[in-house]
């Protein structure tokens, strides 16, 4: 594991004794509007004793520490520790920027969450994989169905405008600003 960690500069901030105890690590990018770039300065990792730590830029609170200040040394994330996490996919607990509703939570203007919270929408589903990104959360169930509740959380359907071989077109109202989109 320590050879693998050398690939990521952020891991240089983890003490060697702690590195020896890491079960797995998730290094990820985060868009920083101040620099207008995506960077690789965030890491979440789990140790062999099931403790979860985070460090990095944390601009949107995406480390789940309850704030959005930069974290230059590993910080314990109590709410995620001892949860038996097998990988980080933001599928059961979500945190970070929610501007597009990608956390599976209700959308509010200028919304981001700095502490992990359970995504209730996915609790009764047999999720086998989740893809999370800057503006989406998409879950695949064991029977091959996908779940993406972005549409339902974002729009109120006013009327069906048309349908055809490529799907249906709706007249909708945006739940955030009330704008009508034909």
Automatic annotation (TrEMBL):
PROSITE patterns in the cross-refs: RCC1_3
Signal peptide: none
Pfam hit, one: RCC1
GO cellular component annotations of the record: cytoplasm
Top-level taxon: Eukaryota
Gene Ontology terms, MF aspect: guanyl-nucleotide exchange factor activity
InterPro entries in the record: Ran_GTPase-activating, RCC1/BLIP-II, Reg_chr_condens
Ranges for the RCC repeats: 90-143
Name of the protein in question: Protein kinase domain-containing protein
